[in-house]
Here is the input.
Amino acid sequence: MTRFDVIGLDADDTLWHSEDSFLEVERHFVELLTPYVAVGVDIPGALRATEQRHLPISGYGVKAFTLSLVECAITVSQGKVPANVVGEVLALGMGMLTEPVRLLDGVAEVLADLGRDHRLVLITKGDLVHQSRKLESSGLAHHFAHIDIVMEKDEATYRRILGDLGVEPDRFCMIGNSVRSDVLPVLAIGGDAVHVAYHITWEHELVDHDGSIVSAETLRDVPALLR
Amino acid sequence: MTRFDVIGLDADDTLWHSEDSFLEVERHFVELLTPYVAVGVDIPGALRATEQRHLPISGYGVKAFTLSLVECAITVSQGKVPANVVGEVLALGMGMLTEPVRLLDGVAEVLADLGRDHRLVLITKGDLVHQSRKLESSGLAHHFAHIDIVMEKDEATYRRILGDLGVEPDRFCMIGNSVRSDVLPVLAIGGDAVHVAYHITWEHELVDHDGSIVSAETLRDVPALLR
Here is the structure.
């Protein structure tokens, strides 16, 4: 007898590395742009402001991020960046779309273990094509009974997914690296959640919260917590 | 007694105008780029080649199209386009994401009519955020029992959707403007389909086919055809 019927898993920074690529691209972006930008201008700050402005229109994911990189390159340099450098910026972003997937430690074993007595469901934000490509090339797709790539992980989204799956909230547990997206909305609808931190958290996902949250040091510690 | 339980509807160029915006943006793009491009260079041809190359990586939709516009602007001008013109190109593409939805004639009435005795399902390719935004602002969302935004409309996709809906192919009819995406794969899995042509067809959706296809002049003619 298990405590849960369905276990939801986040993808980026829960199953495979993601945020570190964004930071690496940002670092390159700053290097490329610095010669064309006035001294003292905060390039990462400008990029984050552009991303935040675009978020409701273009959503999460690498394509949206790349569009923000290009726009920010032009505005932050006041139009002084040459086209070939814009081309390099574009290639930096687009390159993330075909980067090999780098699994986090122990992921395949943990999914095999949890999958023995639970239905596993992948619930991830981001771009349809890119997330599907990563899942396919990860060699993990066969562990999942259902894949849901969503725009926003809020209470309404989780309610809709549990409804589609025909599972009661108290038989559902979500596992992921974002307190904001993977934990709080699931607890709010009466489900359970385990937070597995990644070493970097995207600023947008940071959230203040009180109340107790169940955390695991790594994904390897999750099965024991759930049983 | 109806012939079908579930009716699938495509969105772009079936419920609302879409392809004409892409063509309008392309026209502006050519105007913007012409001063920086050698005489005789086929700018629309270069754009289409860029799009085709990006398609497996970035998929369908406006964000992918905008990334292609930016890349093409740089390559087709051999890096001679100034950054502020690249900015205008980017804004052209991004502007499509917030364009108001323009419904095709009679859409709301036809959905209300068909919805009286069928479950209606929206099945569309493209970008999760943009398609959701268009549907929400269209005032049509309440007609649909289910929304599926997919990467590719092929036999496997339709089989998966019909499985999720618990409907047999012979009780399903798809309506859309693309023979390639809305008609042929549905017929191939034993479903029915009605082709409702839009006045422009994206080159990528053109397909050679033999065999008979049921066509309606406009969406208004569909209910009579289905009953």
